[in-house]
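Recall that a protein's primary structure is simply its ordered list of amino acids. Everything else, from secondary elements to tertiary packing, is in principle encoded there. The following example makes that idea concrete.
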Amino acid sequence: MDELIQNKLSIAEHFGDIKDHRVRFDHLLIDVIVIAICACICSADSWVDVESWGKANIEWLKKYLKLPFGIPSHDTFGRIFSIIKPMEFEKRFISWTHSIYSNTNDVIDVIPIDGKALRRSYDKKSNQAAIHMVGAWSLKNKVSLGQVKTSEKSNEITAIPKLLDMLAIKGCIITIDAMGCQKDITHKIVNNGGDYVIAVKDNQPTLRQEIEDYFENAISSEPDKIDFHETIETKNGEQIYRMYYISSEVDELDSSDDFANVSSIGMVETKRIKNGEISSEIRYFILSFITTALFFSNCVRGHWGIENSLHWVLDVAFNEDYSRIRKNHGAENMAIIRRISLNLLKNNVAGKKKSMKSKRLLAGWDTKYLEQVLGF
């Protein structure tokens, strides 16, 4: 245990002070947390898996943990994680993430924020709906930065400000889909030292119409006031043209006054051609800074990093959508454990070319590789 605590990047250093709400206990809380994280890294997706992995690796675990009563049962793991307060656990997760993945260079970090449902966390017996998580992703460091639970997708509007207050976003650019196009959210971002690129749809109909009217007129009559960038790619036999327009002429937008620091507006037109058929889509954005169409395109495309690099990986490599953990805070806390595991695995240099599933399997087979992942 001492060796684990002395390691600057150790799990115990950041998670060891979580309040233990148990009155009587045999197993140390930090032992339970460390075992769960290690087991999750090694492909354990349920509390039964966690117990089995712990028992199979008890001699290795004794090198770092006290384990006064051996490995807890799966019922004990489930009971303990059902009563740990997720907000306390999440704060330690964010602290640990910032300690390892701080801003160490001049590259501006783009942080997409988006929601994800834990589909199998619903419980018919107790009439519990599936849990919906709102999370943040660092494009620069390729790690999950934090998450907040909400009861349903519509409540993302209230969850996003809570998440923003938990994160260190000074000097970063926050990207959010149209759900987050709210005046209070833009003020929260700016007041916390960040900038934003936020999609505008029909939930802000007046603002959307003003942006649409501006670009419709300006593209034909005042093109010198618009910066333009285009990308072309071919994917699965489909040609995709993306045209990015951005302008800092925001004085004509009467409805933007209540949003914080609206400095630019953007439009993205996407055309897809496949088998002779053409489809198109146009999206609109507000930005709190002045920039080029090229950088604007990087922010817009980068927003999908949270879907492709976080949500998709959690479902495919960690089976999050199939998890039946649901008792009290269990599902939310297990979601945090998955993200801790993903961050450690994703940024392990030794297994850089391996898939996430392969990394998890290798960690389970080779404790030396597991130690590398954990930073021992």
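The first strand starts at residue 110 and ends at 118. Residues 1-9 have pLDDT under 50 and may be disordered.
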